């Protein structure tokens, strides 16, 4: 919302008579909770659960009593883990399962979980442990439910699992379609940015595949199962969750198709737009649903050099906002001014074409 307001301020300087419809969106990662809380008029609340490092954290959710929404990133997101402690094989997702259990206890009938931005690569077994599942190796010893142990698990115990999720509609919101394993899976595509060394990719991916081949083989063919370090796979396997396209689900809930009909210009955004952004991330999701003939412009923190030339994916042009070389800290602090200035310049061009 802050970014949308900054862009509005800039455009309004150049186009004082324009009207605006601010529609912040999320596609399963950070920001999805805020988007749906405001868009669906949900009530905010919080609950103490286990964080990625095993510590208690206050995690947030939004609800109207029947529906509840929360983000995996708010519990065990990468941004919540210090750089020197980022190891996706030893961090836990237990808090995700604890939050699900809490919401079920409250009488919630529909749960939506955004699974982007995770710090983990455990295939969702930590989440399962938070719901009461226990995992054992071939010697009968219980092992911690973390990614490091996926290849050692030979038995799963359901004895401490006491929630009935059969009447709960659990939806997994994700912005990716990656499978769980293989060169396009969770480990190879996302492991590096979470702190996993390249030389470990093959063995970690093999362990993940071995676990799911042994217990839930159908998940290996499920599109989107690799989201959240395999959290999408775990939710589908252990809770019966259904994976949906994050951006399409959010746009549907916010009545985007109706609202876009009256727009002359649609502005999308991304922190850093790159080739991966064009494979279903929020900006392209919005652009693909915008009727042809309407102008779609991207305003981004930066543009990576792997992007094709615009126009592409129904986006006519993309503008980076960074005005000069500076530290990351200062650049982030200047984001509101950079957004406003870039939007004003775009507005000046639009105003000129209206003459």
Sheet with the most strands: spatial strand order: 1-2-3-4-7-8
Distance between the termini: 31 Å
| Total beta-strand segments | 11
pLDDT below 50 for ≥5 consecutive residues: which ranges? Answer: none
SS strand fraction: 15-25%
Helix content: 25-40%
Name the assembly state: single chain
Rounded mean pLDDT is 93
Q: Globular, elongated, flat, extended or rod-shaped: what is the shape?
A: globular
Count of helix runs: 13
Order of helices and strands: HHEEEHHEHEEEHHHEHHEHEEHH
Q: Rg from C-alpha positions?
A: 21 Å
Secondary structure class reads alpha/beta
Biggest sheet record: 6 strands, mixed
Short summary of the structure?
With 355 residues, the chain is α/β, with parallel strands linked by helices. Helices cover 34% and strands 18% of the residues. Helix 1 packs parallel to helix 13.
What does this protein structure show overall?
This protein is of the alpha/beta class and 355 residues long. 34% of the residues lie in helices and 18% in strands. The protein has 13 helices and eleven strands. The strands form three sheets. It has a six-stranded mixed beta sheet with strand order 1-2-3-4-7-8, sandwiched between helices. A three-stranded parallel beta sheet has the order 9-10-11, with helices on both faces. Helix 1 packs parallel to helix 13. The longest helix is centred in the C-terminal third of the chain and has 19 residues. The chain is globular, with a radius of gyration of 21 Å. The mean pLDDT is 93.
Set out the fold topology.
Elements: H1 2-14, H2 32-39, E1 43-50, E2 56-63, E3 67-71, H3 73-76, H4 94-105, E4 110-114, H5 125-130, E5 134-136, E6 155-157, E7 169-174, H6 186-190, H7 201-215, H8 227-239, E8 242-245, H9 246-253, H10 256-260, E9 265-273, H11 282-289, E10 295-303, E11 317-320, H12 328-333, H13 335-353
Parallel strand pairs: 3-4, 4-7, 7-8, 9-10, 10-11
Antiparallel strand pairs: 1-2, 2-3, 5-6
Helix pairs in contact: 1-13
